[in-house]
Specification:
alpha/beta, eight-stranded mixed beta sheet, 11 helices, 40% helix, 15% strand, metal-binding, ATP-binding, ATP binding
Length: 292
């Protein structure tokens, strides 16, 4: 299907925020809906697709290129749960080179060999480390490889800080044909104040929350089995939330340029929320829709 439109999506988030867990469950949910999906792990740790592969390691693009000069894309593509095509870009040898080089190299290899078209994919989902948006990590945004960008964030300040940095990167490259923002996937949202913080952040930056994903022991149990929640607990409430999120992303068509806060504004915003949470704890207030 030469003229088929492949939807390419990048999901960013700081390390440890649950980005790969979220991405893998989105991929698993999409294949269960009958879509052909590739998950493209862009973290040098090369662990994006673990739960799609039963916890099994797969050779990365960079590792394979270090062993041989010529590599066929098929050598670094491995099938996971439900037929999800799993790829790990990999990173350089420890202490040497740019951590984002694997993304650049893998994307070039797949473009040259027309892999996405040959596999007749519906979705390519890039799982990208979002602590820094520079070099190779910015490739899905900067070069417009991804059509839509989503970020996983909790209500913790460093997660919000990383999301705001991502918004700055999107804003910077938007005039040069870069990818735009689809919205925020609010992760580990259990306490009411956490939802209020994320809601206020997206209001300040003129974006939106795509889905609220609570912290759940079901996710932990599933990952201890080396599986996604979609595979291990398909009838659970958490699986229903991931499926709802996946369908929202599948149907998403309009992304926008966010309006990131500058460093001073972000610090001021965070400080006001800190004061508000202290007031909540002491019983001085009960709710607050916006702290700015």
């Amino acid at each position: 299907m030469a003229n088929k439109k492949i939807k390419q999506i990048a999901i960013y988030g700081k390390g440890g925020i649950g980005k790969s867990t979220t991405t893998s469950n989105i991929s698993a949910a999409l294949v269960k809906q009958g879509f052909k999906v590739m998950q493209f792990g862009c973290d040098p740790k090369s662990d994006s697709t673990n739960t799609l592969r039963g916890g099994k390691y797969i050779p990365t693009v960079l590792d394979t290129l270090r062993e041989k000069t010529t590599v066929k894309a098929s050598e670094v593509i491995h099938e996971g749960f439900g037929g999800v095509y799993c790829v790990e870009a990999g990173g350089p040898a420890p202490g040497v080179g740019c951590a984002g080089r694997g993304i650049i190299t893998a994307v070039q290899l797949f473009k040259q060999q027309r892999v996405f078209e040959e596999l007749d994919l519906d979705f390519v989902i890039y799982d990208v480390l979002g602590d820094v948006v520079c070099g190779g990590f910015a490739v899905p945004i900067r070069e417009g490889i991804a059509e839509h960008v989503f970020t996983v964030s909790s209500a913790d300040f460093m997660a919000v800080y990383a999301a705001n940095n991502l918004f700055r990167g999107i804003h910077k490259y938007s005039n040069a044909g870069g990818a735009l923002l689809g919205g925020v996937i609010a992760n580990s949202i259990n306490a009411p104040y956490a939802k209020e913080i994320i809601d206020d952040f997206v209001k300040q930056t003129k974006t939106q929350v795509v889905e609220y994903v609570p912290r759940s022991v079901t996710v932990t149990q599933s990952e201890l089995q080396g599986k996604t929640t979609i595979e291990a607990a398909p009838n659970s409430e958490q699986a229903k939330i991931y499926t709802r999120l996946a369908l929202k992303i599948a149907e998403h068509t309009e992304s926008k340029v966010p309006e990131p806060l500058d460093v001073h504004e972000l610090r001021e915003w965070a400080s006001k929320w800190a004061d508000h949470l202290l007031a909540l704890e002491t019983g001085e207030v009960t709710s607050k829709a916006s702290c700015i």
